[in-house]
Amino acid sequence: MKIIYDVIKKPLFTEKGMDIKERENKVLIEVNPGSNKHEIKKAVEDIFKVKIEKVATINEKGKMKKFGKSAGRTPDRKKAVITLKEGEKLDFIEGV
Question: Which of 7, 30, 40, 59 is the least crowded, having the fewest Cβ atoms under 10 Å away?
Answer without folding.
Answer: 59
